[in-house]
Write a structure and sequence with these properties.
By secondary structure, the protein is an alpha/beta fold. It contains 11 helices and 12 strands. The strands form 2 sheets. Strands 2-1-3-12-11-4-5-10-8-9 form a 10-stranded mixed β-sheet, sandwiched between helices. A two-stranded antiparallel ribbon has the order 6-7. A hairpin with a 5-residue loop joins β6 and β7. The structure holds adenosine-5'-triphosphate and magnesium ion (MG). Belongs to the isocitrate and isopropylmalate dehydrogenases family.
Length: 332
């Protein structure tokens, strides 16, 4: 059986790192049918639309999508694409690797961020010349769905510790936002209890201090939308290098995978972008499609190359994207 994977390179270094990731996927004993689709700044210039309906439909109907990056049109592309795959959780691992300079080399955490509501639900109003408001939406159903995912995630040993006994931490601000975060907290903890999964909690401000001081205290962290956005970026700062961080937007029977970095206009077109984040996003895609062992092999190959080289310029080396990709494929 082959998996239909929609491939959207987008703009800038998306056009370099996504082909690198595809090369790695093609080295695996897994059947893929890659379907190329267009989106981003260049697409808007040529067609008038950053995200053509055809691309949206392809992503919605595929088994999974691999996305690179989009420039100024990023929000017009990625927000609808997340909707196309019906994504309710954003998965953001932040792991430091031997051989890569990191503020906190012992960091190994995974954020599971609510991906549909909170303050990003889009309900903003300008009520007068002086007053603007934002409606924060939290539902029990979305909170529980995220928590169910978190329980499965740790239960399958997919947390950093690989240990299903480890449980997760829920970060929130329910002491102030008693109604919205109160509901979120209550539902998430209730699901953990029902499922027999260990869950502890942190106030998100305290967490923002404790994480950089000692990241080893944490493994899987479950957050509302905005908190997850900010806190996962904080964790990214601990591990050194935007070129390393993958992410997944997971839905009910579809998902979209993308590096955390953008189009990197300063180095685009030079063939020197670090393909690691895109390759690790592809590894998450492989695991999502059920090939857990192959995903692990890709990650091991990436780790080997990060530790022994070759390395791209962002990591202090002078290798090209192609050289790093070839080294990863060699190890596979
Ligand atoms: P965009 O406008 O698309 O968000 P940006 O420049 O604001 O682009 P990023 O693309 O995330 O943001 O890049 C931030 C910095 O990190 C840039 O200096 C870029 O060169 C560097 N960078 C990001 N990704 C990579 C990568 N894969 N390899 C090497 N350097 C990278
Ligand atoms: Mg940017």
């Amino acid at each position: 059986m082959s998996h239909e994977v929609v491939v959207i390179e987008g703009d800038g270094i998306g056009r370099e790192v996504v082909p690198a990731a595809i090369e790695v996927l093609e080295a695996l004993p897994v059947g893929f049918e890659f379907v190329e689709a267009e989106a981003g700044d260049a697409t808007k210039e040529s067609t008038g639309e950053a995200l053509p309906a055809e691309t949206y439909e392809l992503a919605a109907d595929a088994d999974a999508t691999l996305f690179g990056a989009a420039g100024e049109t990023a929000a017009d592309v990625i927000l609808p694409l997340r909707e196309a795959v019906d994504s309710f959780v954003n998965v953001r691992p932040a792991k430091a690797y031997p051989g890569v300079d990191a503020l906190r080399p012992e960091t190994d955490v995974v954020f599971l961020r609510e991906n549909t509501e909170g303050v990003y639900s889009g309900h903003e109003d300008r009520l007068s010349d002086d007053l603007s408001t934002l409606t924060r939406v939290v539902t029990s159903s979305a909170s529980r769905e995220l928590a169910e995912y978190a329980c499965e995630f740790v239960g399958d040993g997919r947390g950093p510790a690989g240990d299903s006994e480890e449980g997760f931490t829920v970060a929130h601000k329910a002491n102030v936002m008693r109604e919205t975060d109160g509901r979120f907290r209550e539902e998430v903890l209730a699901v953990a209890e029902e499922r027999g999964v260990d869950a502890d909690e942190e106030l998100m401000d305290a967490f923002a201090t404790k994480l950089p001081l000692d990241p080893t205290q944490y493994g899987v962290i479950v957050c509302p939308n905005l908190a997850g956005d900010v806190l996962s970026d904080l964790a990214a700062g601990l591990v050194g290098g935007l070129g390393l961080l993958p992410s997944a937007n997971v839905g009910h029977d579809n998902a979209l995978f993308e590096p955390v970095h953008g189009t990197a206009p300063d180095i685009a077109g030079e063939g020197i972008a670090n393909p690691t984040a895109a390759v690790l996003s592809a590894a998450m895609l492989v695991e999502y499609l059920g090939h857990v062992e192959e995903g692990r092999r890709v990650r091991d190959a990436v780790e080997g190359v990060l530790s022994d080289g070759p390395r791209t310029g962002d990591l202090g080396g002078d290798a090209t994207t192609d050289e790093v990709t070839a080294a990863i494929v060699d190890r596979l």
